[in-house]
Amino acid sequence: MRKMFTVGLAAVMAMGLCACGSQKAPETTAAPAVAATTTAAASEEEKEETTEAQASSGTAGGEGYVVALCNYSIGNSWRAQMEQEFVAEAEKLKTEGVVSEYYITNSNEDINKQISDMQDLITKKVDAIVITAASPTALAPVVEEAAEAGIKVVSFDNVVETDEQVATVGIDEKEFGRIGAEWLVDKLDGKGRIVVLNGIAGTATDSLRWGGAEEVFKQYPDIEILGSANASWDYAQGKAAMESMLSAYPEIDGVWSQGGAMTQGAIDAFIAAGRDLVPMTSEGNNGAIRAWIENKDKGLSCIAPSNPTYTSAEALRVVIKALNGEDIPGNVVMDIETVTEENVDQYYRPDMPDSFWVLTELDDATLQKLYK
Predict the structure, then answer these.
(1) Which of 195, 200, 302, 307 has the highest local Cβ count within 10 Å?
(2) Which N-terminal residues, if any, form the signal peptide (predicted)?
(3) CA torsion angle for 197, 351, 367, 24 (degrees, to 10)?
């Protein structure tokens, strides 16, 4: 089940954007060649820059809206799957005659490139843009430029800090961080040595998730944060960071991680080092869930508040409503669906690879193409 509620613009700065959703997804139409960059990016290490916007032509006669996804990265499987969710929704809207054409840009985490991508989309006179931003502040002026040109803009996942956009869409990222921190404190009875795995420094999601967790940890003076690392929500970086911290700290009682792939890397690092497994926060990543299930009997406990990859599709649905003249609240907040020790088995997909993210709207045919 998917639920959404809305709050006023004043809460935007305290929220980041993603979503929550049902494990079983409604069927969508698989995307054509426009998704080639996304498919290639399903590999965790694929970070090849998209040098120009990709376009998919629409229905005969050019009727319908022209929309775009302005993406800052497809450098991990969450982002690759997220991009494909946009493609699937855009293709569905094309078959309905709502969308005639869509563009996708990727700046490979380059802020200046993403600003340039936005300017190019403004020049193309698109009707709407959904953006996940490399910086919440650096992209604000060009988003405002787009709004001034009459383009409807919605930011999601990593949001833009401006009132000139139509809305932000996603989960409350600060609450995401708080859920995991409160669970970890409870598991440790309010005292212990922990390490932290954060995402991409400077992004809204990273700052908000850690901000929510830090507020909790500050209430417990006996919780000692030994060290932290930015591991970009990536398995390999998460594993390497944890290996370094395991070498530096002979006693680690818990791990607060804001990303599932990083948590899987941390689990593997603990096992490789021969260290006892400790409570770890996680996310709805298939590999992390598999490792969690396989190591339950070895003392591993986890919780996984989750950020669904279909937030991009929800952002597109919201901006279409705005184009149709509907009133849109400034911040559309989606529930945080949480994987727990009681329901973890319901989310694991043994038929899918570790890089798959379990909260999706993509049909199995599309997923098989994405992760082949």
Answers:
(1) 307
(2) 1-24
(3) -90
